[in-house]
Design a protein that fits this description.
The chain is of the alpha+beta class and 267 residues long. It has one domain: Penicillin V Acylase, Chain A (4-Layer Sandwich), CATH 3.60.60.10. It has six helices and 13 strands. The longest helix has 13 residues.
């Protein structure tokens, strides 16, 4: 239950079409800014699940954590999440009684085929706390962000993304993004500026070096998903016993070919 109680401060984006410049159709960010004092950063783990009759998926988190915070499925769906401490009145009310969002996100990876399936799952769920959720679809080459609470579910693309502000959260063609929170001018402004600066050139490598490293989001872990090609780029925070940079956004990334991982035979 800890994820639903603490919610976390995080960032996300989805970029496609004219925004990117590599051999894929959608690039998605999921940056987790969460507890750095507890044990979580000492036990990073990527678990690949091979269910009998559902989607194979990679769950990125920590040992013993079975819910979904960060991950990609063989249906080329990716998940992102941001906890909201500074909502506006459009969120309505929130609750702590319902489906924990970490299980809803995991179910998207395991059971859903398309972004529309994921949206339907959210619409029909007994929702709980204030969140921003994101789902990318590598088959359709697009990304949607969701304003999510007990009483509200709103779906955004690059044309209607909220909260809209011409200075600190401008809309950018073929891009949906949020930095750290709903009402968070500083991080949203920096992330938006970097997306605009490298617009049309964005690749996983550019995003790693010039987007999250400049915004400074993803201290616990962060992942970039090339959903079209099922390529994963992931970095974890330094364990307490390890020297060097601490935050994941300052550390080395590992590239994983998810097509090969998903094709591994179960024991």
């Amino acid at each position: 239950m800890i994820a639903g109680l603490t919610q976390g401060k995080c960032s996300m984006f989805g970029a496609w079409g004219d925004a990117i410049n590599f051999g894929g159709s959608v690039l998605q960010l999921r940056a987790l800014d969460w507890d750095m004092d507890g044990p979580f950063r000492d036990f990073p783990q990527i678990t690949v699940y091979h269910p009998d009759n559902n989607h194979t998926f990679a769950n990125i988190g920590m040992t013993g954590f079975v819910g979904g915070l960060t991950g990609v499925s063989d249906a080329k769906l990716g998940i992102s999440e941001i906890g909201v401490d500074y909502p506006d009145d459009t969120f309505g009310t929130e609750s702590r009684i319902g489906v924990p969002f970490i299980f809803l996100l995991r179910d998207i990876l395991q059971f859903d085929d398309t972004i529309d399936d994921a949206i339907s799952r959210m619409a029909n769920a007994h929702r709980t706390c204030d969140l921003i959720l994101g789902v990318g679809d590598g088959k359709l080459g697009t990304f949607r962000g969701m304003e999510y609470s007990y009483s509200t579910l709103k779906v955004f693309d690059d044309q209607n993304m909220q909260p809209y502000d011409a200075t600190w959260h401008p809309r950018i063609k073929d891009t949906v993004y949020w930095g750290m929170d709903w009402i968070c001018p500083s991080y949203n402004e920096v992330l938006g500026e970097q997306i605009q600066k490298y617009y049309g050139q964005i690749s996983p490598q550019i995003a790693i070096q010039y987007l999250t490293a400049i915004e400074k989001s993803g201290d616990n872990h962060l992942a970039f998903y090339d959903l079209s090609n099922l390529e994963l780029y992931v970095s974890f925070a330094a364990p307490h016993s390890v020297g060097g940079p601490v935050a994941a956004y300052d550390r080395q990334f590992t590239h994983l070919d998810l097509t090969k991982l998903f094709a591994e035979q179960r024991p």
